[in-house]
Amino acid sequence: MQELKRQVKGYTQELEQRKQVQVPHKQELVRQVAEPQNSAGEGSTELQGKLTCRSAFVMDAKTGKVLYDRSADRPGQPASTIKVLTGLIAVESLDNQEMVRTSAYAANMPASKVYLKKGASYQATDLINAVLLASANDASVALAEKVAGSEQAFAQLMTKKAEALGAQNTICKSANGLTRPGQQTTARDLATVFNRAMRNPEFAERMSTVKVHTSDGKVLRSHNKALWTVDGAVGGKTGYTVAAGKTYVGKFQRDGQAIIVSLLGSASMWDDIATLVEHGFAKQEMASLDHENAPAGTRVSLIKQKDQGKERVDYAMLTLTGQKKKIKM
Fold first, then answer.
1. Which residues bind substrate (predicted)?
2. What is the C-alpha separation between 21 and 37, in angstroms, rounded?
3. What is the pLDDT of residue 233?
């Protein structure tokens, strides 16, 4: 252990001497590597006491690598985050100018809503924006009935779509996320689905929009205030019901890196989002420290200690490139 500490200390001192561009928090990242961590599958103890959500998940949007996991496979009601599926299916199924007639059932949906009129017809593009930006429950059901004939049939389509996108524990019972018995998702599923959905250029463009005018002149504003309050936000969907608590899924990009953040059951959602975003990018920067700062021929390696009756610990140490790592504890 003393040898490991000496090696990490020596590496840090060498970086101080060699650095050309100073990044204030990189030594903090090295410190974090040496702190105790649980594997992603066990539920991370990182950020303990700093989050209010029941479950959370952060992943690298490009590689799928898990950057943070707090009870990410714990099922819960999704609330309006499930509208990601509603909007994506509508984008893929309907022409923008296609007209959608509003049934009495759709018009009578509770808020949040855009107050569609029973029997009136609206352009699909306006209803899709109403769903993804303004989180409109009435527009969600109107689109569901247009695509599948009924909300129930559309919910089955949503479940199949979620599975096709990689979700394993998502069951949809409504087009808008209002609480239904048996309806569920997980933080991991939300992140997985949203990451795949953002590969659709039209969907991604709508998700990045802060404000848009409908064809009849109304203004729709995004509920995702991360777009103007969190550095690097490129799209996301909020949700809330009493049963679900506050829920969220979103994508963030900085300096060529991209992460997906999701959470369920939050009491202080925007604070949780900010904490998870910073943690996710710090994890990515820690992983890239080797390429950016290590002297030629060296790298920082993670040595994972097997459970020896003590808390699992990941250690940071120097190795020469191509050298096998040998450690005795």
1. 237
2. 29
3. 98
Residue among 253, 247, 216, 251 nearest 129 (CA): 216
State mean pLDDT over 160-173: 98
Q: Can you tell me the distance from the alpha carbon of 240 to that of 9, in angstroms, rounded to the nearest whole number?
A: 47
Q: Is 83 a catalytic residue?
A: yes
Q: What are phi and psi of 211, to 5 degrees?
A: -150, 140
How much is the pLDDT for 36?
Answer: 35
Q: What angle do CA 94, 124, 138 make, to 5 degrees?
A: 120
Among 26, 44, 71, 83, the active-site one is 83
Lowest mean pLDDT among 12-16, 68-72, 215-219, 317-321: 317-321
Chain centroid to CA 63: how far? Answer: 14
The answer to the question of whether 118 is labelled as a binding residue is no
User: What mean pLDDT do residues 37-60 have?
Assistant: 77
Instruction: Specify the domain boundaries for CATH 3.40.710.10 within the chain.
Output: 79-288
* DSSP reduced 3-state for 162: helix
CATH superfamily of the domain spanning 79-288: DD-peptidase/beta-lactamase superfamily (3.40.710.10)
50 is catalytic: no
